[in-house]
Amino acid sequence: MDAIVPGETRIGWIGTGVMGEAMAGHLLDAGYALTIYNRSTEKTRRLQHRGAEAVSSPAEVIQRSSVVLTIVGYPADVREVYFSSAGLIPHGSPGKILVDMTTSPPSLAEEIYQRGLERGMDCLDAPVSGGDIGAREARLSIMVGGRQEIFDRLWPLWERIGKTIVFQGPPGAGQHTKMVNQILIASNMIGVCEALLYASRAGLDLKMVLQSVSSGAAGSWSLSNLAPRMIAGDFAPGFLVDHFLKDLGIALDEAARMDLALPGLGLAKQLYQAVRAQGHGRSGTQALVRALAHLSHCPWNSLPQSSSLI
Amino acid sequence: MDAIVPGETRIGWIGTGVMGEAMAGHLLDAGYALTIYNRSTEKTRRLQHRGAEAVSSPAEVIQRSSVVLTIVGYPADVREVYFSSAGLIPHGSPGKILVDMTTSPPSLAEEIYQRGLERGMDCLDAPVSGGDIGAREARLSIMVGGRQEIFDRLWPLWERIGKTIVFQGPPGAGQHTKMVNQILIASNMIGVCEALLYASRAGLDLKMVLQSVSSGAAGSWSLSNLAPRMIAGDFAPGFLVDHFLKDLGIALDEAARMDLALPGLGLAKQLYQAVRAQGHGRSGTQALVRALAHLSHCPWNSLPQSSSLI
Q1: What is the pTM of this model?
Q2: Which of A167, A282, A310, B297 is at 20 to 30 A from B116, Cα to Cα?
Q3: Closest approach of chain A CAs to the CA of B307, in angstroms?
Q4: Chain B residue with minimal CA distance to A261?
Q5: Chain B residue with minimum CA distance to A203
Q6: B185 contacts in A (CB within 8 Å)?
Q7: Residue A162 CA: distances (Å) to CA of A182, A240, A266, B274
């Protein structure tokens, strides 16, 4: 494949949800010709108005493109897009490059790599973190596994959508790194929620408490960004509980496969299962505070005054 | 009591360990006359050379001082210093102020406040976070409970030793806030350790992984400051496992007293108990990674190459 050049290289994009639409938009802005596909066709409309060509299968996408990037939902969706009869791999041809940015199992990334290789294609796993805001502002962290030569060649694309872009190793290494990211978030979220519950039960002023603890050894992104939303009773999704549960399941499965016990991650998965059981699967991950509050019979909706919970 | 003025107000200081010595030193530097006491007398030598007067009991300290600050080890040490026959409360007199900066139970802070009040004294609980470096650089976070009027009057002292200084509420509120700080650290440490173990077992380059995950939603003080030490096999104490275990015990006791279930904190306490059982009570809190590694038969001493652990 030749160098990646706007106006020459034809790019394919599969998955135009909140994240995918923002990311694909940056490539349009940069001048790339874009062929797009999404299962729900109404989600391609805005990108079509901006000049993307929408087609009706992954097969058509890869036939029209040199590089195809995908960001869909669950591992089953990734399998469908890559392996089904109208999928990318069966319709691929030598020299093309496939990049899966969905968060999905490292073992699936390895399988995609192998099956791509059999058809003369290079596949990368390149999951991202940074959420919808990171996608809109092109500030994502992109964690890439595969062959470094291919990673290097795609640099013109990475730099349009991400800010922290690191090649992590062989196929699956990008997905493994994303799992590390989710493991970190999971246990820390438990700490943030339990800390707020303790403070509330103790009758403290939660905002004053945050002043004392946010900038020292207890500080974290989640404490600074999500604790204020929990206090305000704002459970709108930055990142969905349902999606986080999927990721924690993948991480636990992979850890088990590697014969590794992760008790904190196991607890986090169970508590997020409770968040979902309580009907908050479509809330943001900060809804964990509700499940933990419920455990001690301490309803947590909004919290204008900490003392209301004592 | 009159205003706090260097050269006029006589200050007492009890507890000249690593933290206490640095903090008391700042008051000497500011020109305050200091009377000091420590159970192990050799730990007062350096401050004596800098002009502090060392005496042989808390009783003598309070007889010579208008304000006495204490920072000792365990709750039993606090009780000894405040309540024993040669302690601060029995030898106190109206108008004097006592400030306990030890991390100890909120209920003990309330008891000190009450017993001080009976002798006409005002007592504050003012635990700190920031460790020995924060103490040396006078950048501690000081979390204060008691009467706000007294907190305000001591401002000239606070600003000599701390940077983030917040009045948190009635007696015990300072200690409760410190518990919030420790609850946050405890669960996050589990996440940091499990994330490194996962990354190591997956064969990733741990330093590259940190590049991808440190600045986004998974980021935290512990990840940025302690994960590199874990990777380097540096378990020198910034904060001792034994002391952290004491704090987690206090937090769990207080939570139980408030009828509050904190499963993440409970898990953290058990895992730190294992760190201690494995002989690392005098290591820094980052030694948690060893206990978790041990769980999956994965020795963790130093880690020049992640691949050594696969």
Answers
A1: 0.95
A2: A310
A3: 12
A4: B296
A5: B173
A6: 191, 217-218
A7: 18, 21, 31, 41
Residue type, position B43, single letter: K
Q: Are A113 and A123 in contact (CB under 8 A)?
A: yes
CB A292 within 8 A of CB A278: no
Cβ of A209 under 8 Å from any chain B Cβ? yes
Whether B254 and chain A come into contact, CB under 8 Å, resolves to yes
| Res A298: pLDDT | 85
Interface of B with A in 40-69 (CB under 8 A): none
The first and second tokens of residue A123, run together, are: 């596949």
Give A235-293 pLDDT, tens digit per residue.
Answer: 999 999 999 999 999 999 999 999 999 999 999 999 999 999 999 999 999 999 999 99
Q: Per residue in A122-164, pLDDT tens?
A: 999 999 999 889 999 999 999 999 999 999 999 999 999 999 9
Whether the Cβ atoms of residue A154 and residue A178 lie closer than 8 Å to each other: no
Residue type, A233: G
Long-range interactions of A245-248: CB distance < 8 A, separation 24+ = A245/A269, A245/A272, A245/A273, A245/A276, A245/A281, A246/A74, A246/A75, A246/A103, A247/A103, A247/A178, A247/A179, A247/A182, A248/A182, A248/A186, A248/A272
Question: Which structural domains are found in chain A, ordered by start?
Answer: 10-171 (3.40.50.720), 177-307 (1.10.1040.10)
Residue in A243, A247, A244, A235 with CA at minimum distance from that of residue A283: A235
Strands A97-100, A122-125: pairing kind: parallel
Scan for tokens 């960001």, then name that residue.
A71
Kindly give the pairing relationship between strand B128-129 and strand B140-145: antiparallel
Angle B43-B48-B52 from CA coordinates, rounded to 5°: 115
Q: Is B126 on the interface with A (CB under 8 A)?
A: no
Structure tokens belonging to residue B163? 């940077």
Token output for B198: 């996962």
Rg, Å, chain A Cα set: 21
Residues with Cβ within 8 Å of residue A199, at least 6 apart in sequence: A206, A209, A306, B176, B177, B180
Nearest Cα to A208, choosing from B36, B28, B164, B294? B164
DSSP letter at B31 equals T
